[in-house]
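Fold it.
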Amino acid sequence: MDAQTRRRLEVLETHFTSEVEHDWDQCLATFKGTPRYEIVPMGQIHEGAEAVRAYHQAQRTAFPDQRHENVRMHVGDDDTIVAEFDLIGTNTGPFMESGPTGKAFRVPVVAVFSFDGDGITNERVYLDVASLVRQIGRTDLLPLLGVEGFAAAQMR
């Protein structure tokens, strides 16, 4: 493994730790240039320090114990590292304008990190949001995610 790959993996370790510890200044410091998160299944793009901080604060209000387990890193040939992990947490705060359920979730996630030098330029997150909302007992959110209509169409 070359020196730059080692440094990038260290940046990702800092990035993941800062998310779990709710250290948004440290999290933002892992980015080079404008921080950017893409939450693919929700069609969300959070760009800029304020937007990324607001995204994290909202997530950690809903799931204060959110963390990563079974993290596996896959180094690409270019400026990309792919992280696979289980995202886990408990819904103990408001989520999507509704009260907490107190229920836990565990969903597999793939996050694609783009780099410029040693700094992250983008994190693109893929996860099964329908499984997450089902696990926390919020099936009422499925229509908002477009899941019920998709499932019904597949059964026709």
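Confidence is low (pLDDT under 50) at residues 148-156.
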